[in-house]
């Protein structure tokens, strides 16, 4: 197959195309994360679904629901997380959950 870019073989063009796709996906993830972080810092709360999804990425699993709270557990951990099932979870509640999970805010944000 002839390369459409002068001086590059077809295989080099394929590798370059793959790198461009990977970079574009990474930029999309960064934009999404930036939008979530801007929203959180501007309004002082995080949406419940993002919160639970992030804890699930960190190894926490749904155990049960108790009234308006979701109980998350993690294998090997003695503590449980009681996440309020509200659309908006306040900043102080979020910090308490992060602390209870044994994480730093930076570790949590890296997984949003």
From TrEMBL:
Gene Ontology molecular functions: endonuclease activity; hydrolase activity; mRNA binding
One family name in Pfam for this protein: HicA_toxin
Taxonomic superkingdom: Bacteria
Keyword Nuclease: yes
InterPro entries listed in its UniProt record: HicA_mRNA_interferase, HicA_sf
Keyword Signal: no
Keywords for the protein's UniProt record, in alphabetical order: Endonuclease, Hydrolase, Nuclease, RNA-binding, Stress response, Toxin-antitoxin system
Family statement: Belongs to the HicA mRNA interferase family.
Name the UniProt record assigns to this protein: YcfA family protein
Native organism taxonomy: Bacteria, Bacillati, Cyanobacteriota, Cyanophyceae, Nostocales
């Amino acid at each position: 197959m002839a390369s459409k870019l002068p001086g590059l073989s077809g295989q080099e063009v394929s590798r370059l195309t793959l790198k461009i796709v990977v970079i574009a996906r990474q930029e999309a993830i960064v934009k999404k994360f930036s939008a979530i972080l801007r929203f959180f810092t501007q309004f002082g709360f995080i949406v419940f679904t993002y919160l639970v999804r992030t804890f699930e990425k960190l190894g926490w699993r749904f155990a049960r629901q108790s009234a308006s709270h979701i109980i998350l557990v993690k294998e090997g951990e003695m503590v449980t997380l009681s996440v309020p099932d509200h659309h908006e979870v306040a900043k102080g509640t979020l910090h308490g959950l992060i602390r209870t999970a044994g994480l730093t805010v930076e570790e949590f944000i890296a997984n949003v």
